[in-house]
Amino acid sequence: MISRRMTILALGLGLGLGAFAQPAVADPNYLEQAISDTKEAIAAGKQMESASFVEHIDDAYDHARSAVWQTPVDPIRKGIKYLRKAAKLAKGTSLDKRIDKATEQAELALEQFQSVK
């Protein structure tokens, strides 16, 4: 019995330590991805492509949320607020005025993201 318990304990410790012994994978640079997606959203907004604009804004928002975990600074937080406002303005509409306002919000977000670098 004791040898069986020791075997199970040793096996459990070996598996547990094996999980920590794996090499670390470098995290992607989320801020760069947020900047890239925001630029693509701005380009789509200037062409009045609301569906593409919203898709890129959503991607930029996801990447910016991840970036703020890596680098918790105020410009990224402000950029996220601008992205949220841009998405709110552009979702469910194809009105030129609303797309223009949403594009302006995306441009403000881009300025915030670029100020971090």
UniProtKB/TrEMBL annotation:
Write out the GO MF terms: metal ion binding
Question: According to the UniProt entry, where is the signal peptide?
Answer: 1-21
Transmembrane spans: none
* Xref: Pfam families: SMBP
Write down the species.
Methylocystis parvus
Q: Which UniProt keywords apply?
A: Signal
Keyword Nucleotide-binding part of the UniProt annotation: no
Can you name this protein?
A: Small secreted protein
